[in-house]
Amino acid sequence: MVEPCRFLPLAEEIGLVIQIDQWVMRQACRQYKLWQKQGLPPVTLAINISGQQFMKNELLETVTGILKESGVDPGLLELELTEGVLMAHTEKTIKTLQALKGMGVRLAIDDFGTGFSSLSYLKRFPLDVLKIDRTFIKDITSDPDDAAITVATIEMAHTLKLQVIAEGVETQPQLDFLTRNGCDLYQGYLFSRPVPPEEITRLFTCAR
After folding, report:
1. Same domain, 97 and 198
2. What's the whole-model pTM score?
3. Is residue 112 part of a domain?
4. Sign of dihedral through CA atoms 6, 9, 14, 16?
5. Domain membership of residue 93 as a residue range
6. I need a surface site. Which of 37, 67, 92, 173 has the fewest CB within 10 A?
7. Residue 25 counted as domain residue
8. 2-60 pLDDT tens trace
9. What does the DSSP 8-state code read for residue 142?
């Protein structure tokens, strides 16, 4: 196994990350249709997108083509973009995001709090979801600063009518804190580690 944090920087450096993006999106959408045929419920499919897709102006064309090819409902697809992607080429980014929203695709800002987002810019983006970075969640029950930042982020996001997801939730006390403070959804090892596609089917079957 090679972790994404090891190969993605190299893929970006040598110009392969767009091909990886396209392959991942195509495979994910195909797998999603297989799950639907197996009777799994229509949950949101979230996929990370690299900044180079925006720089080369290929994202809209790629998403349109893969959705048409796979038959996945655009309303069930969520694209996750980092703060750096959103802040670069702002006007062009807004137009691309608006076109995706027009198709029904959901949009999320990933790893929020690790970049340099300006709130005046953030409110201009047609986003649906804000994901709080795991660096704030890790010590949320022991570091007053992390706790205060997280609570403020949840309140700000809700004011902007954004759904809030906490990343890296690994303990019950973390979950309890986030639940008390109105976080909407959670992801992390407390719920499940990464699993192969067939294990996803089993998890959904057990949850019914």
Report:
1. no
2. 0.90
3. no
4. positive
5. 1-80+87-107
6. 37
7. yes
8. 888 888 889 988 989 889 999 999 999 999 999 999 888 899 999 998 878 777 777 88
9. T
